[in-house]
Amino acid sequence: MNTPIPAPQDSGADRQPEAPEPDSQTFGISDLARQFQVTTRTIRFYEDKGLLNPARQGMKRIYGQRDLVRLRLVLRGKRLGFSLDEIAGIMDMYDTDPGEIGQLRYMLNRLAEQRRTLLQQRRDLEQTLTELDQIEAQCRRQLGEIRE
Amino acid sequence: MNTPIPAPQDSGADRQPEAPEPDSQTFGISDLARQFQVTTRTIRFYEDKGLLNPARQGMKRIYGQRDLVRLRLVLRGKRLGFSLDEIAGIMDMYDTDPGEIGQLRYMLNRLAEQRRTLLQQRRDLEQTLTELDQIEAQCRRQLGEIRE
DNA sequence: CTGTTACTTGACGTTTACGTAAACGTAATA
DNA sequence: TATTACGTTTACGTAAACGTCAAGTAACAG
């Protein structure tokens, strides 16, 4: 339920107190919160759940590109109505390197499963959209009638 | 906890409060549960929330076509990740007869809003699907390499 | 009458996804 | 040095969506 993944980021090489390294962009937790319109609590919660795991600089959490991508994925998953656990499962597929052949087969199964879910969702979506269209048309008719 | 049952807005559409009508198919709660693969608890819960409101025959709940349609809508909404409250809101749009012109404008706004949500969801969906495709392709490549 | 089956209404328990303090650490600034 | 800003962990609170008893009713079989 966790992600091993050792942080390859910055192992405390030379640092000057007044020169924040300009290499690949990094962010504090508040920056992230602002960018993605979520609270810091939420971000920490996702970390607890193993969805993120930022580097640390002392106590502080430092977020890099990888974390941005992950957070984006999480929020997209939420918009699609998946639970955090499900999202964790999906993200595992994104970056699991399937060494064994068994693993590969397993992953292919999960991919197929996931695809089925998404396709069902797409059907639901399209149907809902057409129904909304009908309702709207009805509304506009009514509006027309009243105005005359 | 009670449910004040927020105004059964049957403005226009008539319903017989009590009548042992044998005409259009009716169902008991267990029938419904089986058909839709949910528990009776869930069905009663939805009623508490105002999403269903079946006729009664004595104490027993009797479900008709209208209820079937509603339940289907609820479950579809859930598959799309909406909360029961949101679903209630959507269903209001389905069968609210917007008498006043203000109501009409309000509904059109809500429709537009809802549409935006769904369109966003569709984008998320398509992107996720293409990403899954990429992952799968990668998997299949790996599988090919190993086999040789 | 007794037992079984299906249904009812509470009412408390559980999981998920955070919100909301409380209490403390670190660092720049007035 | 005191304040302010931002960060940390720990922990209790909460709304949603049911699950899970408990206890009672109503109909019917044997």
Helix content of chain A: 55-70%
Radius of gyration of chain A: 22 Å
Number of domains as seen in the coordinates of chain A: 2
Question: What fold name goes in the CATH topology slot of the largest domain in chain A?
Answer: Multidrug-efflux Transporter Regulator, Chain: A, Domain 2
* Shape verdict of chain A: flat
Sheet of most strands of chain A: 2 strands, antiparallel
**Could you tell me the number of beta strands of chain A?**
2
- Provide the spatial order of strands within the biggest beta sheet of chain A: 1-2
**Number of contiguous helices of chain A:** 5
Identify the most extensive interface between protein chains: A-B, 35 and 36 residues
Topology:
Two copies of one chain form a homodimer.
Chain A: H1 29-36, H2 40-48, E1 55-57, E2 60-62, H3 65-79, H4 84-95, H5 101-147
Antiparallel strand pairs in A: 1-2
Helix pairs in contact in A: 3-4
The structure holds a DNA duplex (30 and 30 nucleotides).
What would you note in describing this structure?
2 copies of one chain form a homodimer. The first copy, chain A, is mostly helical. Chain A has 2 domains: 24-95, Orthogonal Bundle (Multidrug-efflux Transporter Regulator, Chain: A, Domain 2), CATH 1.10.1660; 99-148. The first copy, chain A, has 5 helices and 2 strands; from the N terminus they run ααββααα. A two-stranded antiparallel ribbon of chain A has the order 1-2. In chain A, a hairpin with a 2-residue loop joins β1 and β2 (60-62). In chain A, α3 crosses α4 (84-95). The longest helix of chain A has 47 residues, at 101-147. The model of chain A is unreliable at 1-22 (pLDDT under 50).
